Amino acid sequence: DIQMTQSPSSLSASVGDRVTITCQASQDISNYLNWYQQKPGKAPKLLIYDASNLETGVPSRFSGSGSGTDFTFTISSLQPEDIATYYCQQYDNLQTFGQGTKVEIK
Amino acid sequence: EVQLVESGGGLVQPGGSLRLSCAASGFTFSSYWMSWVRQAPGKGLEWVANIKQDGSEKYYVDSVKGRFTISRDNAKNSLYLQMNSLRAEDTAVYYCAKNFGVVISGMDVWGQGTTVTVSS
Asked: Fewest Cβ atoms nearer than 10 Å: which of A34, A36, A86, B26?
């Protein structure tokens, strides 16, 4: 089974800050990596697919990079509406989610 | 409008059974892999099961193998999850989700979720 390790588990940043979340796979998953946003009480929303592709309609302040085992998710300028938990997910071998990163406003 | 609507959740005793349903609309249901994902209270997302377009391939997370069965009816645009021998640790919100590719990929459409509570 492929394990996904996300860090940090939570972070607090100011509006306008650059926010970075990392996700490490337990083995090479090429670029089979997606990022989701989940707001409290809501279903997850796909933001980034195939490691670096922005889903239609998602603001350009969100971006993703990486391949192999190490991946990065970035919010270039944190906005109040970005308060949520973010998850990475691999699909190289079935599907596995990271444990999530809760983003809060400082 | 592309939409997934789950139903069938509720309170069930340990050892009991429950069948979840997911009604799809707004897209060609028979063209996509479909998934169930769950989220225990206060916890993260956990993939539960996948089913291929024609139902010929099914995959499960180890913790539900032998207890849960995923199925679909393409004529009714519906996805199902039969859950037997339920345990307290199966308590969660269960989401159905559409994979965005024609192979197992990521999930681009999600339902609102249905809550399953396993308790005596």
From this structure: B26
Q: How far apart are CA A68 and CA B100, in angstroms?
A: 21
Of B45, B47, B108, nearest to A55 by CB-CB distance is: B108
Question: Hunting for tokens 């990475």 — which residue is that?
Answer: A88
Residues B35 and B79: their CA atoms lie apart, in Å, by 9
Q: Are B6 and B94 contacting, i.e. CB atoms less than 8 angstroms apart?
A: yes
Give the CA radius of gyration of chain A.
13
Pick B46's closest partner by Cβ from A34, A49, A97: A97
The whole-angstrom separation of Cα B22 and Cα B36 is 10
pLDDT in tens, chain B (120 residues): 999 999 999 999 999 999 999 999 999 999 999 999 999 999 999 999 999 999 999 999 999 999 999 999 999 999 999 999 999 999 999 999 999 988 989 999 999 999 999 999
The DSSP line for B1-41 is --EEEEE--EEE-TT--EEEEEEEESS-GGGS-EEEEEE-T
Torsion, CA B104, CA B108, CA B114, CA B119, rounded to 10: 50
Contact B47 A96 (CB under 8 A): yes
Q: Choosing among A49, A95, A96, A99, which should be mutated to test the B contact, i.e. which has the most B CBs within 10 A?
A: A95
Nearest-Cα residue of chain B relative to residue A40: B42
- Could you give phi then psi for residue B74, rounded to 5 degrees? -65, -25
Q: What is the pairing mode between strands B92-99 and B114-118?
A: antiparallel
